[in-house]
Structures are given as C-alpha cells and as structure tokens.
Design a protein that fits this description.
By secondary structure, this protein is mainly β. The protein has a domain of 60 residues: Complement Module, domain 1. It contains no helices and 10 strands. Strands 4-6-8-9 form a 4-stranded antiparallel sheet, with no helix packed on it. A two-stranded antiparallel ribbon has the order 1-2. The chain starts with a strand and ends with a strand.
Length: 86
C-alpha cells in the first residue's frame, strides 16, 4: 500500500492507494494442468492447484499457488519433469 500525504489547513490526511487486488492466470506447466477454472483473473487469496496427469511426470516443487495481489503469485508455476525410473 502506498500513502499520499495531503497538507491542508492544519492537519495531515493520508490517502491509501491500493494495488490491484487480482492476479492474471499464471499459465500451466508443460505436461501439467491445474484444478482452477479457466478465467483471466483471480482475486487475492484465490489458489490454483497444479498436477501432472501422466504418471511419467512429477512436479518439481509445491503444487499450490496463492494470489497475493499486485499481479503476483506466492511462487512460480511448478514444472512437470520426467520421473526417475529405477
């Protein structure tokens, strides 16, 4: 949040300026998908859960992203990487 200060008469007034309360869809990983409905914008606090539908692939990091506002997500979209075959 940014504050603008206005000096008028003998008092100071603070006007908050809020950043955009949404995030654009972050995209999907190659070989991956998400449980999120297809929409352009997500509100602050909304989450997207990613997964790799093929058992040949595994996510390389945390699968849940949260919109934290100002167009930013809590982390990068995870990648679906080929699983190790033993």
């Amino acid at each position: 949040m940014t504050l603008i200060i206005s000096h008028r008469q003998s008092f100071i007034r603070y006007y908050p300026i809020f950043s955009d309360p949404y995030c654009r869809h972050p995209g999907r990983p190659s070989h991956g998908d998400s449980t999120a409905p297809a929409k352009d914008y997500y509100l602050v606090g909304e989450k997207i859960v990613f997964y790799c539908p093929s058992p040949e692939y595994k996510l390389n990091s945390e699968n849940v992203l949260s919109c934290i506002g100002a167009g930013k997500w809590s982390r990068k979209v995870p990648l679906c990487l080929l699983a190790n075959r033993n």
